[in-house]
Amino acid sequence: MTLPLRAIAVFDVVARCCSLTKAAAELYVTPSAVSQQIHALELHLGTTLLKKAGRGVALTEAGERYFEMIAEDVQRITEATQRIRGFRSRAALTVRTTPTLGSKWLLPRLHRFLDANPDVEVRLNATTEPTDFSREAVDVEIRHGEGQWPGVFVEGLAEEIYLPVCAPAYALPQSMEAAELQQHRLIYSVKAQLQWPQWFASVGVLPSAEWTRLLFDRSHMAIDAAADGLGVALESNLMMWRELQEGSLVCPVRNPPQFKLTTQWVVCPFDHLRKAKVQLFLEWLRQERTTWQNESVLP
Predict the structure, then answer these.
(1) E-assigned strand segments in 74-126
(2) Is the pLDDT of residue 68 over 80?
(3) One fold for both 91-155+264-295 and 160-261?
(4) Nearest alpha-carbon partner for 234 in 218, 254, 219
(5) 51 — phi, psi (to 5°)?
(6) In Å, how far are 10, 16, 34, 61, 77 from 55, measured between CA atoms?
(7) CATH second-level architecture of 91-155+264-295?
(8) Alpha carbon of 53 to those of 27, 65, 89, 195: distances in Å?
(9) Are residues 204 and 255 in contact, defined by beta-carbon separation less than 8 angstroms?
(10) Greatest Cα-to-Cα distance within the chain, rounded to the nearest angstrom
(11) Where are the beta strands (DSSP E) in the chain?
(12) How much is the average pLDDT of 69-74?
């Protein structure tokens, strides 16, 4: 059975606009033509996709499920078609990264890559989900973990140093001993590879049953919470380099131990290393790593 591709494309626009009139304007056709395409698709699928909602339309339950299943693929087809037709002559580089590294470290530096490579169009996808390179159109991933993924290229991004930090208004630099931290609210990033119990054990402090905790599932939220004066976080200098540089975070502990870990890894299939755009991005990452290491500020 032939797929009604035109009707599917029209439905995608209507689902995004929630309006036949707006969809018609975007498609440069009449609302009647849009309605005809939607009706044809509903006949093809044997179900109703739209329902009236005030002056506009809304998706039915079946419509919502169908839109969820096709939206990403329709977008991919649209982008591919535009490139082939010559609307975009630039190379498209898709990078997947963890949310904290993406927002705290990669994004502030990305302008240098874009300036040096104006013919490369970057798509940044921030998620903690590992890439299935056999199914997903991702060129390079920066993945959180221990670096043990067989069958793919893996390179550590940088060695990180974990330190307790807080806002200077919360506690002055080097103003307390490690054991005194237990009297303060401890900010946790629950997915971090180093947690407070490990840190306290390293300085010989027994865990307290009365710790006051504030927990986040993203490190960037823990960093921001500490900078806002909500407590003391245990975080990586890679992720909080800007806050350390600007002085919005300080280490309140005298002579803290320096835990060194590599938690962020550059990952891609080996055959992706042959792509010029991937080579450019990896070389740029290595340069940025060296620059960060030379400029890194520790409390």
Answers:
(1) 91-97, 120-126
(2) yes
(3) yes
(4) 219
(5) -140, 155
(6) 19, 16, 16, 19, 31
(7) 3-Layer(aba) Sandwich (3.40)
(8) 21, 18, 41, 50
(9) no
(10) 75
(11) 50-53, 56-59, 91-97, 120-126, 140-144, 153-156, 160-165, 185-189, 212-216, 232-236, 259-261, 264-268
(12) 87
Dihedral of CA 231/235/240/241: which sign?
positive
* Adjacent-strand bridge partners of 207: none
Separation of alpha carbons 11 and 50, rounded Å: 9
Give one DSSP letter per residue of 124-166, joined into a string: EEE-SSPP-TTTS--SEEEEES-S--TTSEEEE---EEEEEEB
Residue 281 has pLDDT above 80, yes or no: yes
Which is the CATH superfamily of the domain at 160-261? Answer: Periplasmic binding protein-like II (3.40.190.10)
pTM, full prediction: 0.69
* 122 exposure class (CB count in 10 Å sphere: 0-12, 13-18, 19+): middle
What is the C-alpha separation between 236 and 107, in angstroms, rounded? 17
Digit-coded pLDDT (tens) for 120-147 = 999 999 988 899 988 888 999 999 999 9
**Is residue 86 over pLDDT 70?**
no
d(CA 91, CA 242): 31
DSSP annotation of 217? S
Domain 5-84 sits in CATH at: 1.10.10.10
Task: Note whether 199 and 188 are within 8 A (CB).
Answer: no
CA distance linking residue 200 with residue 222, whole number of Å? 18
Quick one: tokens of 110?
């990305």
Give the pairing of strands 160-165 and 232-236.
antiparallel
Sort 52 into a burial class: Cβ within 10 Å, 0-12 / 13-18 / 19+: exposed
How high is the pLDDT of residue 52?
A: 87
Per-domain residue ranges for the chain? 5-84, 91-155+264-295, 160-261
